[in-house]
Design goal:
single chain, 292 residues, mainly alpha, globular
């Protein structure tokens, strides 16, 4: 059987799976900050991804700069995330069902507004010429430089978030505020402001990922629901609030989705949910989750 396998196709699909996992992780890292650490059910996270991609597209049209598109997409999503926290979620702390219903309503309104503004057309941001080439690799012969860059970006995002949460005062305040909010407030810390910063960071990561995803793949209506669902599965599989868990969950989901579409397209989507069911059956808190 081994000699019947197309090894070049296998390794190309493996690289595509890692690329997809990197994009999922970049989106889900913001989601795990908000949902995993703060226990806020922000079902509008996918809308932040889509808004970041659209705003980045407009910024590139206006300036011709891909870097400006990255900054504009991240800034717009961060601003919207902060507004959602101030206007809605800060008043519903601990009310999971209420937060989820409000967030779903917000995501529906945002989806309609974005459809009204940008229509049903598929857009793609233009990568800089320096990223449009290919890198020679063994077996696969060559692979897209932009897709390899996406993997490097995901690694940098993961390391930066891990350092933020474990090596900085802000990270300590975030974790302490979630575990015992009243005690932290008694020490004079402005916990609502800390949570506002977390929402802004989570939104910025979603918008940043939207511009990257819109450059390497494309952006169109419906992407918000797709990336919200993938982020939710990644966080559940990896463990709520765990950055390494989100990376592991994204890798499992991305590889399963890619291999499934390549080798068993009829049942490809089912593999992702089988992984989630298996993980929840063995480890209900996720692969690297911790006690709340």
């Amino acid at each position: 059987m081994i000699h019947l396998i197309n090894w070049r196709l296998f390794w190309i699909e493996s690289l595509n799976g890692i690329m997809l996992a990197s994009l999922y992780f970049t989106v889900a890292s913001g989601f795990t900050l908000i949902f995993g650490l703060m226990r806020v059910v922000n079902m509008a996270h996918g809308s932040l991804y889509l808004l970041g991609a659209y705003v980045g597209y407009e910024a590139q049209l206006a300036t011709g700069s891909w870097v400006a598109a990255l900054l504009a997409g991240a800034a717009a999503a961060a601003a919207l995330g902060a507004v959602l926290q101030m206007a809605f979620f800060s008043w519903m702390q601990g009310q999971d069902l209420r937060q989820a219903l409000v967030a779903i309503g917000i995501s529906i309104v945002l989806a309609d507004l974005m459809l009204w503004q940008w229509g049903g057309t598929t857009y793609q941001l233009t990568l800089p010429d320096s990223l449009n080439g290919f890198v020679p690799l063994l077996v696969v012969r060559r692979y897209s430089m932009a897709r390899l860059l996406l993997v490097a970006v995901a690694v940098c995002v993961g390391v930066a978030l891990w350092l933020l949460l474990t090596r900085t005062r802000l990270g300590i305040l975030i974790r302490a505020g979630v575990d015992d909010r009243r005690m932290v407030e008694a020490l004079g810390v402005n916990v609502p402001l800390v949570f506002l910063v977390v929402f802004a960071i989570g939104g910025a990561l979603a918008g940043f990922a939207g511009v990257i995803g819109g450059s390497v793949l494309s952006v169109s209506p419906g992407e918000d629901a797709r990336y919200l669902l993938s982020s939710l599965i990644v966080v559940i599989v990896g463990g709520m609030g765990s950055i390494p868990g989100a990376a592991l969950g994204a890798l499992l989901v991305g590889m399963a989705e890619t291999y499934g579409l390549a080798y068993a397209p009829t049942y490809g989507v089912a593999f992702t949910f089988l992984i989630m069911v298996a993980v929840l059956a063995i480890r209900p808190r996720g692969l690297m989750g911790r006690r709340a």
